[in-house]
From TrEMBL:
Superkingdom of origin organism: Bacteria
Keyword Zinc: yes
GO biological process: glycoside metabolic process
Matches recorded under InterPro entries: GlcNAc_PI_deacetylase-related, LmbE-like_dom_sf
Pfam families listed in its UniProt record: PIG-L (PF02585)
Annotated SUPFAM superfamilies: LmbE-like (SSF102588)
Keywords, in A-Z order: Zinc
Protein name: GlcNAc-PI de-N-acetylase
Amino acid sequence: MQTAVFFHAHPDDEALLTAGTMAMLAAEGHRVVLVVATAGERGLADMPHGDELGAARMNELYASAARLGCARVVRLGYGDSGLSADGGMAEDRPDNAFIDADLEEAAQRLAAILKEETAELLTIYDPAGGYGHPDHVMVHRVGARAAEIAGTPILLEATVNRDPLLKGIRLAARFYPKLDVRAFESAYSAGSDITHRINVRKHARAKRAAMAAHATQATGGDGDRTLGAMLKIPAPIFRYVFGTEWYVRRGLPPGTRLRHPFDQPS
């Protein structure tokens, strides 16, 4: 048995990016630990921002983790930094916002968990934080430093293959001219950078259940959000669309293609 720690910014991030991998590792008998930086108390939802929303989202996180087979869930205790109207850093963020945390102090907190768990693997996000959320960028920075402190041997950046994503966005832009294609041109990771393509189709049901656990994030604003739309996809199509999860491990030879999180290049 090996231990994998999955580090995310907010509840529901794990369901969208790494749930299939988590379920797969748990089913194989590995110890899976989920760490979140914040409770997501400033996320878009049909509830006011604050402690009530944070508590609701943490309860959803525990339900998601149970469906994925996680052995432990940890919250680092930082405040959700939120987003401005243009998708940047919010000016009215709380005093303990994750984005304003001392990098070394936050990394030491995470490193303590890695050492306690004797973790062989840590997942974070790519340097851009996927789509650029400030808390996601901070996860990358804090996680990379924590792995260095703890000596965690495998550090994977959870991401999305940008190439097919961009093709889909450009196709959609023909019908929705207001769609900003440029915003996606630097999001996530180019296919040539991806080192791990994990087939998680056997665990699509668990991934879907993890998504469904985050009910507060399925709606909010002017109707269904991305998560809500994903949950409406028929099961066979869901299994195909969400049947692969992508990771980047820096420092490997160009063209490295691995199929399991614990795989090592030959």
